[in-house]
Design a protein that fits this description.
alpha+beta; Outer Surface Protein A, domain 3; binds zinc ion; eight-stranded antiparallel beta sheet; 23 helices; elongated; 19% strand
């Protein structure tokens, strides 16, 4: 090491400072894989910070009496190995000030090093809370005095006899769960059970989580720690209880820290196992339903979250203690980047990483596993969500990809760039970067992804089963009561029109007059053909009137069960020509109709592989032999109010047109025919899912941009 490395150009600004650890800190010494590590806890915030043996060698000399110059000089005199550089001291002081762990005599100098940094850090914290409301903590209760009064709880959780009993229960529970799995699953997947379960699930969840957190807290108290905060944390708006167990990270014994971390999962597993036993033993009923929910909550949270070391919940911290690798996730990623950099970019050896070489395999394995897990979750959620809520799903996926993949990637690229600059490897770095970006673009461009179109359809009566009046007029009392089975041609109701009979009389009088005129004409004159033409026209007019008089009585065009609209039942009223007054319900005479935009219609015409139909409550699906007919021309009118936003549908109504149900943009009707469709109710909402041939991701993205944004420009 050359001497120039030892000195720092700003040293004179700091040399006279007298640092001292803040009064609210306490320290503990842990040993990780034979290497001592020092923890400094800020008791005010509860946060713990780790420092290496080398850092501690300096920090332990901060007594508030000696200034930095004499501390450093003393270390030089004592031949401390390795001797810290002045810049190490500057960095360390800077870090400690930012963490608010030290106080400085001559504090006005703080501004020199840390003022700006601290302000930046605080601003960043505020921004994170504003921009990312993903983990808001809401403290609720200080359980310390409760825990101190109920020390017997500690015995419940740590007595060897009880522990072996718990182990036995879990074993039995697991065996039962495996044995009864098919039945358990069948029972749960029944849609009706599932819906009722949702309420139970919401009630069971806090109950189990309360036990989980209590277990953490009790064990912290068991080994002399204190828990002063229990509350709710909101992860992506989902409430998750938490307990402030930072005291546990001060525990010197590793098994104690691990036990605290593991206590929550263990408690859930015991509860879930007990519930499994109850479920097998109990008769169907509320008790069994509650037991099933405890199994689900305990099982899912143990397997996917708290028991999964790949996400930062309990098991992660347990594993990181077990391997004696603090900050496991970050170190694993660093190691992965380091090895990649060594292999591809020829980075020089980094002593800090080489120190970890004996756990390199674990770190690489962890880095790859946790990345793969994150990818599976992101891809799974995105496929699921874009299926139901395309826009929201895409936004959420965008957020996941940005925060979970892009931001860490950019960070590691930045540090990679910095490292490479030392070794004059920038050319290779740029090459590797463009290469991998190119690879990603290629993958995105070529990777085929399933592609679907979703729209809504309604179960509507076929046109001829709708009862309409043919002529404007006064409605009589219905001839047939609602609910009657009618056959084709039966008269349903009469309409009285006072105008038509009068017009008929007038026409007949006219006809009489023409007839007598014709008889009065002698010889072949030019009069005769003219008169004949007038007579023929009048006769035709009269026939038309007769026809309309005939149609005054509304007859059944199809067979089925008669239903009257409300107005008709409440006594005679006026109905205008073409008005719907009732319906002949016949479940065979229906049409399933939906509307789509023109661009979607084009896509449906071009490539349709399979069509699936799902009822609104999700309990009925149809996917056999469904044929889909896209009507040829676009229209500006919907056939039912239920297609509009006001009616619960998807289309905005053009309010300017009061009479018709007009749309703002042209739509195309799609008619589906479904064999063996069971009608439950008319106007039932159905969800249609059409799958198209797989397409590269780039096409999907382009279509999304086109349909969401460009169509507004076109319109
Ligand atoms: Zn926990």
């Amino acid at each position: 090491m050359s001497t120039t490395h030892l000195y720092h150009r700003d040293w004179h600004l700091l040399a006279q400072l007298k640092p001292r650890l803040s009064a609210q800190t306490r320290t503990a010494r842990h040993v990780y894989r034979g290497e001592p590590t020092f923890i400094i806890q800020d008791q005010y915030s509860g946060r713990c910070h780790r420092f290496s043996r080398y850092a501690w060698e300096i920090i332990r000399r901060f007594d508030g009496d000696r200034d930095l110059q004499s501390i450093w000089q003393r270390m030089v005199d004592q031949k401390v190995q390795p001797l810290p550089r002045q810049s190490d001291l500057v960095d360390l002081i800077d870090q400690l000030i930012r963490l608010e762990l030290i106080e400085l005599e001559g504090a006005e100098r703080q501004g020199v090093v840390a003022g700006q940094e601290a302000r930046k850090a605080r601003w960043k914290q505020v921004m994170q809370k504003v921009v990312m409301p993903l983990s808001i903590k809401l403290p609720i209760w200080d359980p310390d005095s409760f825990l101190s009064r109920n020390r017997w709880l500690e015995t419940v959780l740590t007595h060897p006899l009880l522990l072996s009993a718990y182990l036995l229960i879990v074993l039995v529970g697991v065996v039962l769960a495996i044995g009864w799995w098919p039945e358990f699953q069948n029972n749960l997947l029944d849609a009706a059970v599932l819906r009722e379960n949702l309420i139970l699930l919401v009630l069971t969840y806090p109950f189990i989580k309360a036990f989980h957190e209590l277990a953490h807290a009790v064990l912290v108290r068991r080994w002399g720690g204190h828990v002063h905060e229990v509350g709710l944390m909101f992860l992506v708006f989902f409430p998750v209880p938490y307990v402030d167990a930072t005291d546990a990270s001060m525990f010197v014994k590793r098994y104690q820290r691990m036990a605290v971390g593991f206590a929550g999962i263990a408690t859930e597993l015991v509860l879930a196992s007990l519930a499994m036993i109850v479920w097998v033993a109990a008769e169907p009923g509320i008790l069994r339903a509650i037991a099933a929910n405890i199994v689900i909550v305990g099982g899912i949270s143990s397997l996917l979250f708290n028991g999964n070391p790949l996400v930062r919940f309990d098991a992660y911290y347990v594993l990181s203690d077990a391997w004696e690798i603090p900050n496991l996730g970050r170190r694993a990623n660093d190691m992965f980047g380091y090895q990649l950099g060594r292999a591809l970019l020829g980075w020089q050896r980094d002593p800090a990483q080489e120190q970890m070489v004996n756990v390199c395999g674990r770190l690489l394995g962890y880095a790859i596993a946790s990345f793969a897990y994150r990818m599976i979750i992101v891809v799974g959620i995105s496929i699921y969500l874009t299926g139901i809520l395309p826009l929201f799903g895409l936004l959420l996926v965008g957020l996941f990809v940005t925060m979970g993949i892009l931001v860490p990637l950019v960070k590691s690229l930045r540090s990679g760039w910095r490292k490479s600059s030392f070794h004059l490897m920038k050319g290779r770095f740029v090459l590797a970067l463009t290469g991998s970006v190119g690879l990603v673009v290629l993958l995105l461009g070529w990777m085929p992804m399933p592609s679907t179109t979703n729209f809504e359809a309604l179960v509507l009566p076929r046109d001829d089963s709708i009862v309409r009046v043919a002529e404007t007029g006064q409605l009589s009392k219905p001839r047939l009561a609602a609910g009657t089975q009618v056959s084709v041609g039966q008269t349903l109701i009469s309409v009285t029109n006072s105008d038509l009979p009068i017009r008929k009389k007038v026409l007949m009088a006219r006809l009489d007059r023409y007839e007598s005129q014709r008889q009065g004409v002698y010889g072949a004159t030019a009069e005769l053909p003219k008169l004949d033409a007038v007579i023929a026209a009048t006769q035709a007019e009269q026939q038309r009137i007769d026809q309309r008089l005939e149609q005054l009585d509304v007859r059944a065009a199809v067979a089925g069960e008669l239903q009257w609209h409300d107005g008709v039942m409440q006594g005679a009223d006026y109905a205008s020509r073409g008005e719907q007054i009732g319906l002949i319900r016949n479940d065979k005479l229906i049409q399933i109709r939906g509307y789509v935009t023109e661009s979607v219609a084009d896509r449906l015409r071009q490539s349709t592989e399979t069509v699936e139909l799902r009822s609104g409550d999700g309990r009925h699906t149809y996917n056999q032999d469904i044929s889909l007919q896209v009507l040829p021309s676009a229209v500006n009118e919907l056939s039912d109010i239920a297609f509009t936003l006001d009616g619960g549908g998807q289309f905005a109504r053009d309010g300017r047109d009061g009479e018709r149900i007009a749309t703002l943009r042209p739509v195309v009707a799609v008619v589906l025919s479904v064999p063996d469709f069971a009608v439950r109710a008319f106007k039932e909402r159905l969800y249609v899912r059409v799958s198209h041939p797989q397409e590269p991701l780039a096409n999907h993205i382009w279509r999304f941009i086109e349909t969401q944004f460009l169509s507004f420009l076109k319109a």
